[in-house]
Amino acid sequence: MAKKIGITETVLRDAHQSLIATRMSTQDMLPALEMLDKIGFHSLECWGGATFDSCLRFLNEDPWERLRTLKKHMPNTPLQMLFRGQNMLGYRHYADDVVEYFVQKSVANGIDVIRIFDALNDIRNLETSIKAAQKEKGAHVQVAVSYTTSPVHDIAYFVDYAKQLEQLGADSLCIKDMAGLLLPQSTYELVKALKENVKLPVQVHSHFTAGIADMVLLKAIEAGADVVDTALSPLAMGTSHPATESMVAALKGTEYDTGLDLGALNEVTAYFKTLRKKYMDDGLLKTKMLEVDTNALMYQVPGGMLSNLVSQLANMGQEEKLQAVLEEVPRVRKDAGYPPLVTPSSQIVGTQAVFNIVGGERYKMVTKEFRDLIAGKYGQTAVPVEPEFQQKILGDETPITCRPADLLAPELDSIREEMKQWYTQEEDVLTYAMFGQVATKFFENRAAAAPGAEPDGIYTPEVVVTPL
Question: Is 204 helix (H, G, I), strand (E, B) or coil?
Fold first, then answer.
């Protein structure tokens, strides 16, 4: 039987997050919005992930206002966001009352599809956000499996995890292959196993970093996948996603025809070609991000993480050490219990790898975030951290084994009180909750109606020097 395949377009979120470190402004998006809304996408991923941080930190934009603008100009297409469960869109765990309120406000401001994931695939970190999303009328709760490879991450592991997500009440599943690790045949086998064991729609999200994601999506479709993620060609491939137009053309006239009009796609593509040229001319879009790199299959570095590593090394004047850092990443990941490399674990592992190489000695300098990862404060890793390594990093500190958020008291009221001088809308409370100092700077700029100064980097860890 013919099966129409849905397309989730990522050009307004993950595509530019992967290629230009999430620097596409709302102003750049505006001319394309009505054209995008007419295409007929299954959904349009346009918010969440690193967009919230970048709006505040680099673009002097209110991310909530961006969402409202997108909804106003694209009323006919389901708008999708990426949400990190208990991490929300920040870099730590937040109390349940804050998570619940963020989900509520996201839907109220225009989000239709909430793609929720946990960096460690710790299901305890998803429960609050899933239940919160289920309460919002009309919201589609998609839960993502963070795909990775390790001695324990096999099909049986992912099927078992998917069954637990189904029991929690997910409306659909996503295989989130943030580092482009999926291979065509393994994808076929994984999707087939999921479809046989879980009665939910399955969506596949894979990056083009290793040059095989288009084949991965095709095999996923043949195995029964219902929806795939792509990006319009000017911001596709490289560390981004397979090209939307190419996928639509490949499926046209087959039993999997998407039903999308290539002519309409070409119209909006023409606009994004002008943006691509602008980003190339401005130096935002670097050729490094557009290359096929099969080494990604070894290093497991997703596109956003790679651009962040390049940025960190450039700020240190150590660009020539990128290869050494990439080789160090899998060693740090193994030490940390094989966490999938996706925000925030990708930044945590990547930054620690940078310090190990630039510092000239492994773990001479340890970030607070890496220490917290080893202490269990982000959740439970699939492989337990070796006790000897744990003690080396933590010293006398005792690691936790409970759900990290169980240690957090409700904090919404205290946050509201703390930031009341900057309050102009209820959403400001959530902005401050996640990005205190950055949010305060944005609020100051907003109050003064002046553009903000460009900070130094995307991710600024607190460094703890640990004598070993």
Answer: strand
